[in-house]
Amino acid sequence: MPALNKLYEEYRDRVSFLVVYITEAHPSDVWQMQSNVKDKVVFASPRTEDERSSLAGTCVRKLGIEIPAVIDEFGNSTEAAYTAWPDRLYLIDRNGSVAYKSKPGPFGFHPDELREALRRVVPGSGTSSPQS
Amino acid sequence: MLYRVMRRPPEEFGRVMMKIPQPAAFLVLPFETLWLRARAGTLAVGDHAPDFRLSTIDKTSQVRMSELTAQAKPVVLVFGSYT
Fold first, then answer.
1. A119: which DSSP letter?
2. Measuring CA to CA, how many Å separate A114 from each of A18, B4, B19, B77?
3. Where exactly are the structural domains of chain A?
4. Which of A2, A42, B76, B79 is paired with A68 by a 20 to 30 Å CA distance?
5. Which residues of chain A have a CB within 8 Å of the CB of B55?
6. Contact B81/A22, CB-based, under 8 Å?
7. CATH architecture, domain defined by A2-121
8. What is the pTM of this model?
9. Which pLDDT tens digit goes with each residue over B63-72?
10. What three-state secondary structure class fits A95?
């Protein structure tokens, strides 16, 4: 997430950013991961829209997400349309067409690739990293 | 078999995976290769991004994808969850 927050800071005046909170990858009642237990990230699957938005809020706070976030509806229609689960990155160009689609997470979730795609799509992007 | 399950909706897939001893599933099977294929999806580069209208986390407003693209700026979409 820090890498994505950094891209957001860098590009937010030229690119819209949106986090879409989708159905949980490893809730405690479905295929829980030991690494999550170790990190005390243990949550049951939300059973209502309210529970889902509450967990989404916790997610955004705890992960320190600075990008504006929305919640997929309970039928997971947006997840399905974008084959987004468990996580995935997209860059949509100014005409509304897919310019970059990451491979499915967790293996394919690489903010560096998104950075490269932004350099291609956004005019005036520097070729070197900005001074911090 | 695993490949077919991977193509099912997330929660169904998760329910099958929780019954498979871990980390056996990852060591014995070419999990990653299967996964990348099973979850490739139908959207391709150049395709029109599907529209959606979703609530913000605080539920005070809604964001519509087509309104974002109508601003003639590129859009980054970050999909994910907490666990």
1. H
2. 14, 29, 35, 10
3. 2-121
4. A42
5. 53, 70-71
6. yes
7. 3-Layer(aba) Sandwich (3.40)
8. 0.90
9. 999 999 999 9
10. coil
